[in-house]
């Protein structure tokens, strides 16, 4: 409904408004810069000759120029050493691996994979007396402070199933 009303106002008296716009005096355009005109080349034929004329003095100076370039001496690279990191990181094998080729095989010391993190959090939750922060730190080559932070701030999810009679009450 609103579209019809808007269209009616937009189309009201269209022809007279269009005639009024067409009959208005057109503004004169700004003058063009003199270098943008192409007809100057046709007015002065000497410009074409000047452009295409060879200057003998400049040609002789150019012929006198001699450039010697030398490549820097090539260094022999020993066995692809540029691919090795500067600091050799110690790596350890991961504890788990259920996904075969998709699993991470080696992890730098001081770090753990996602699967290991979930496993150690779950083990600590189920058996906190056995899986203490000190044991986790030794087992996974981590710092004790980081393990304490991990156990404090990250909690794995638990799945709870409600009996059928309590489902109706909820």
From TrEMBL:
It comes from the Eukaryota. GO terms for biological process: mitochondrial respiratory chain complex I assembly. Pfam families: UPF0240. Residues 16-27, 36-46 have a biased composition (Basic and acidic residues). One of its GO terms (cellular component) is mitochondrion. Residues 16-46 are annotated as: Disordered. Belongs to the NDUFAF4 family. Binds calmodulin. Interacts with NDUFAF3. This is NADH dehydrogenase [ubiquinone] 1 alpha subcomplex assembly factor 4. It comes from Spizaetus tyrannus.
């Amino acid at each position: 409904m609103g579209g019809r009303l808007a269209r009616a106002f937009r189309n009201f008296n269209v022809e007279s408004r269009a005639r009024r716009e067409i009959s208005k005096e057109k503004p004169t355009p700004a003058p063009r810069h003199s270098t943008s005109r192409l007809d100057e080349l046709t007015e002065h034929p000497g410009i074409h000759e000047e452009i295409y004329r060879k200057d003998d003095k400049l040609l002789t100076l150019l012929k006198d120029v001699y450039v010697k370039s030398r490549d820097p001496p090539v260094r022999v690279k020993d066995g692809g050493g540029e691919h090795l990191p500067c600091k050799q990181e110690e790596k350890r094998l991961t504890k788990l691996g259920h996904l075969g080729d998709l699993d991470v095989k080696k992890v730098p010391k001081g770090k753990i994979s996602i699967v290991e993190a979930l496993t150690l959090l779950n083990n600590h939750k189920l058996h906190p007396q056995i899986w203490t922060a000190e044991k986790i730190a030794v087992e996974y080559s981590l710092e004790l402070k980081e393990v304490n932070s991990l156990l404090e701030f990250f909690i794995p999810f638990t799945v709870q199933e409600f009996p059928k009679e309590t489902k109706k009450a909820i």
